[in-house]
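Wait, can you check?
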Amino acid sequence: MTQDLAWFVGSSFGGVDDQTERFLRDGIWEISNPTPEDSRKVRSMLPGQRIAMKATFAQKNGLPFDNRGNKASVMRLKARGTITSNPDDGERVTVAWDTDFKPRDWYFYTYRRTIWEVRAGDPMADALIAFAFNDQPQDYELFLQNPFWAKRFGSTAPSDGPRVWIEKSLVAGRTDREEGQHAVGRALWSPQRSKDGRSIYANMLKVRRGDIVFHLTDNDAISHVSTVAENADESFVGLPDTDWAGQPAYRIALKDCITLSPALLRDFFLKTEPFASQLKELVESGARGLFYNSRLELNQGAYLTEVTPSLMAILNRAYQAFAGKTLPYAELDASTPMSEKADEPEAASTTDDYDLEEALEELFFETDLTRDILLLWQAKKTSSFKVPQGSASPSQRADWRTP
């Protein structure tokens, strides 16, 4: 049955010559210099089967889940369509491309070779097909709870303790933020994507119960501090009478809100010495994903950003000078190790910048097993061997032979 199988295919000749626009314009997909196995797969493509163009890469920052500082494999779906005919030349098929499709990123279960034949019937394959062709969201937990990925990303992976965040929110004139269950100190909420489709609110999915949130309100002052009560609710919908009404959104419940008295005025740390110079030096030293930039202005679109230990220390010193007392939870700076470089979205790369563990994610091989295989390969240059049964998924298990 045609719907039981889908094709995920590359669209760059030699990995550098992107053919996506030409394929879309000409209603085709083709491969350059195919191997015999590639040609066999192309000939097996049937009219009515679904096909998607992809690009794979590794990404560490700007992910929509808590990656705990590890790189994750990403497969960007660039286009999708339905195969309409196959001339049986082993190089090309004609395709009715979906002109309304917008690129989407899929995580964990990826494949870097040019042609990937995905058959329905396996939970991960079913999830990928539903994501690519039925617009279903990816269930990250399906993968985060899988033993293979849980070692690096799952809830059982080591945690550094509570993290500290700054919410930058406009409150005045917004009824939802001034009172009620969505008010400052009672909840964080944001759309899931910006109006131009960017995932600038991905940090909402990294927040965990017990984290601390400082609230910078109306671009004027840090006025409140709260504790996270629950992880993000991804089923939330943008509130009526807001710019994001009816849109898919995130909501994070808060508790134990403290009103700072006095509030820490923005100008007192961004325009007052020595704090202004210290903050500028922090940016110039390489810290990223902050709520302000090197010009000591607030970053546009930076709704929720992490507070690094150095940033926390500077803000606390500013508050001590301004108010004669320490900020709530300032002791986390000394007791809790946190990354000095908060995550921020970065440009995707289609280069083969993978280390061994990242490459193995696509084969589901254990690192120790693969190192043993490589040592054996080096020791027996003319040998031929097979990957042990159970070491890879059925669709990816294959004979390995040395040249």
Q: What stands out?
A: Residues 2-150 form a domain with the ph1033 like fold fold (CATH 3.10.590). Residues 309-323 form the longest helix (15 residues).
